[in-house]
Each structure stands twice: as C-alpha cells, then as structure tokens.
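Narrative progress, year one. The postdoctoral researcher (J.K.) led the effort to move from monomer predictions toward full complexes, under supervision of the PI. The following entry was the first complex the group processed end to end, covering 458 residues in total.
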Amino acid sequence: MSAQAGAGTYSPAAAAGDKRREKREELRRHLAEDADRPRADGRSFHDCRPAFMQTGPTTAASGSAYAEFGKTKVIVSVFGPRESKKAMMYSDVGRLNCNVSYTTFATPVRGQGADNKEYSSMLHKALEGAVMLHTFPKTTVDVFALVLESGGSDLPIIISCASLALADAGIMMYDLVASVSVSCFGENIIIDPTSDEEAWQDGSLLVAFMPARKDITQLTLTGEWSDGKITNAVELCMDACSKLGDILRDRLKDTATLTSE
Amino acid sequence: MAATAMDHDGGGDVVTPGELLGNSLTLVAGRGAYAEGRSVRASVTGHRRIVPPAPGSDDQRSTVEVVGHKAHGAVPQPGSVVIARVTKVMARMANADIMCVDSKAIKEKFTGLIRQQDVRATEIDKVDMYQSYRPGDIVRAVLSLGDARAYYLSTAKNELGVVSAQSIAGGTLVPISWTEMQCDLTGQIELRKVAKS
C-alpha cells in the first residue's frame, strides 16, 4: 500500500499518499502523546468495545456462536465430531479442523473475501491446547468461522467466539479460551483496536488465554516493542481475557438454564 | 467464583468448562470433569452433581460429575459394542454403516469394515463372506479403531453377528442355528453368522 513514486512517473497517488501520511501522523500523535484524549469512538485507551455474544445462531451445526464487538461481527459454527476424511493419516486422537473466511462485504474494499489461511492456522493453534482431543479418537471436529463485518481485532474475537461455539457443541475442553489484542502507539498501549487503529499501529500483541487455569494458549507479537511494555501489555491482555471469560461463562449459563426450564 | 463451595446436596448449579469443582483430596472427577494437580474442573457445560462413594469401597471420596446439558454425539470408542447395517459384501470383507454405539444412536456417519478373519472365532480361514452377511443385515459387533480408512468391526464371539435380517422373499429371517436363519414366509433357509440372543 506504499504510495511512493519516482520522479517523472505518472503518480496520481502521491498527493493522496501525502494526505494519508498526514492523517496517520495526526492519529499517531494523538494516540502516542495525549494520554487523556479519548479515541475516535470515544473509548479511553484501556476500554474494550461493548461485546454482544450469543450461542446457537446456526441450527444445523452441533454448536455455534455469534459475537459482535463494535463493528466486528463474527459467526462460528462447529460440526462433529465426525469421521475424518479418507485421505487423512491415522491418528489415535481427534483432530481439530479450523477455517476462517470473510464474506465479500466484510471489508470496506469489496470482494476481498475467501479463506484466510493465516487466521485459520492461528485459530487452530489457539484452540488445540484447550480441547480434549483424546475424547474423540480418529474423528474430526470442524470449526468454521465467518467474518460478517471486519472492524478490527478480528482474530481475537474469532478465537473467543470459537471457544464459545465449541462449548455449545458439548466438545470436552480443559477451559474456555478468551482472546484480546492490543496495539502499541509510541508510549501508549490501546486495547481492542479498531481497523483504523490497527492500520496505523507501531506494534500489536495478541493473547489467547484460558481464564480459569491461567494458561496462555497463544501469544503473537508484531512490530516495535520494548521489554517493559511487553510485560505491561501481556498483563493488560490477561486481565481483559479474564473479564471476557466471565462474559463467555454467563452466556453458556444462560443457554443451559433456558434449555433445562 | 461460587463453584468452590463444596456442598454435598447433589448440587444443580450450572458450571462451564474450566470451572473449579473442588479439591482432588475430597472429590473424584466423574463424567464431564477432569482432575489436574490438586484441582477438579469441569470439561463441559452442565449441572454439577455430587455422587457419594459406593458403600464398602476403599475410596472415601465423592464423585463429582457434570451432566444435563447437551453433549456431543456418541463417538466410536475402541472396545464399544456397536450396531451396524451391512452395505456391501465382498470376497474378503464387508462394509457396514455404524448406527449405534453402546446403545446410543450416532448423529454423524461412520463406516466400519468387517474383515474375513474377524467374522468368527474358529476356522477363520474357511469363512465365506457371502454365507455370513448380506447387504441390509443388522449386525452387532465389537469395534476397534482400525486404520486410516475405516473402523474395524469384529463378530468373533457367540453373542455377536446378525441380529436382524430380511430374506430374499422379503420376509423376516428367524434364527434356527448359529449359521442358519429361516424365512417366516417361504420357510427357505439362508446362511448367516447369527448372534446368540
């Protein structure tokens, strides 16, 4: 997306690039320096977006969950355990098959949908430590995540939503997995970034966390960070994950009491 | 979290995966629960129930289980007794679709394979598959995990084999010996590996 053009070439993007850089500088100055000013959507740096989660939107699946964090909307369906495909290698334990896809209208630029291989494998990594794979030998559990609208922090929301869907499907798990990401802007750390904030960030950190067992299942760090800031950011993420975990538990309990009445 | 309370009233409160159910010094993990280190935790969503220890057992600890909420469908486990429908019979093996695992109906499709050497316990090299099974027969068998392609089913026991079948004429077959069944319409005798009921 760099808008650099050599001299003498046809470069309508140069001016637009300047404007972009200007906007970026302004946002960065704003987020990196003024600690007390709220973010574009009115949150303070350590406020998450309001979360809405629900189990059971997909009736055909064994279990499913819907999550909405601000503009980001995700639906996850879990199928199985069912027979593994013939081409698979023999395995004594079960298999977790994860797939993340975007709808064509998920992003501002239309039609960038299709499968997201990177997110699929990261979702698998985040969940496999929490699922008791030995309880369904030789079979596969399919986890299909569909991003209806991408509004930033997509992967952490997919991970949290997928763990809710797995629990809804009755898959045995050691614990739920809650996930939160933070962005780093200069000296400041902001939690649950939106797409705009993710686009201008200096670095990002994603933590997937099992709240009851206090274990991290996945940690992804990108960009510029300093030692002390990483520690702060991980602690911030873990604290947010614990609170998100409580929300996940409440949703599961709501459904459990509703079905038993 | 209120889940740490260890009241022995049988409970009824809803717990979710990962929630602490108690200490492994006083509780044993039952269905839907697991023990790790000192703590016993839930592995599914459901109602917590505490079962007192069986009288006369050495272990004085109660068992805690999580039941009531929906669990995933039954999954074939090695050693479980399954009910399967034969779909295809070949010279050395027969294919069967598994329908029940340990008296529970399964939701997803699982295919099993009865090999020639697994049909009966004696004279296993003289088995004729066509004189043991026909497509459509309902078979009781013991399951093992098999290979990458299918689950292996074994009927090499007296109480395993065909439990229900239709004759060529369309009547119900009635077992008359461990290798023969008789049609209730025509009286014709057909050969099967019959399960002892």
